[in-house]
Design goal:
209 residues, alpha/beta, 6-stranded mixed sheet, 6 helices, globular
């Protein structure tokens, strides 16, 4: 059986994405972990050359662990059934360069589904891979997934990325219409969390916190 390592103290959040950083803060704050961002440490963003969410999360976590601190990284995206799983690991790239125009990215998904004549409902799923890397090379990874339908026009201004067009199964509001607590709050009774990142975090917390 795999032996897990506990995560404590000061930890680098290996992201320059403010939305992801805020969610990681929300998830880790109750565990007395002091989170410092890669941007605060002036760490460069490594090139994400992996062929999976886990591979890219590991690239980012290992790069940030070179700071001498343990690092946690998330690689996540939306996968659309009618587009053969795209944009997947290229979700951020579909939104363009540094400015990240997710409005255009959501419009592109809708246009491509229409061009293919994909039957509705347009099914999709969010995936999150969390990786922890320690300076000595030890790593651990955890994954979470949530399924739902795509809705257009997008609804809500909360969250970030593709949240406004994603309606999780069993709910009547998109991620973009939910509060942060509704989206990725961890149920006190230990039942399954809602968002992909929170589900990955639940697995991480059971093993490393």
């Amino acid at each position: 059986m795999m032996s897990h390592r506990k995560l404590t103290g000061r930890v680098v959040a290996a992201t320059h994405n403010r939305g992801k950083l805020a969610e990681l803060h929300d998830l880790l704050d109750p565990h007395a972990i002091t989170l410092v961002s890669a941007a605060e440490l002036d760490l460069p963003e490594p090139e994400e050359t992996g062929d999976s969410f886990v591979a890219n999360a590991l690239i980012k976590a290992r790069a940030a662990a070179a700071s001498g601190l343990p690092a946690i990284s998330d690689d996540s995206g939306i996968c659309v059934a009618g587009l053969d799983g795209a944009p997947g690991i290229y979700s951020a790239r579909w939104a363009g360069g540094g400015g990240k125009d997710f409005g255009s990215a959501m419009a592109r998904i809708e246009a491509e589904l229409q061009a293919r004549g994909a039957p509705k409902p347009w099914r999709a799923w969010f995936v999150s891979a969390l990786a922890i890397a320690w300076p000595d090379g030890h790593v651990e990874t955890f994954e979470g997934r949530v399924d739902g339908d795509l809705v257009f026009p997008p609804r809500g201004a909360s969250g970030f990325g593709y949240d406004p067009c994603f309606l999780p199964d069993g709910h009547t509001r998109t991620f973009g219409e939910m509060t942060a607590t509704e989206k990725h709050g961890l149920p006190a009774d230990g039942s399954q969390a809602l968002s992909h990142r929170a589900r990955a975090f639940q697995a991480l917390a059971r093993a490393c916190l």
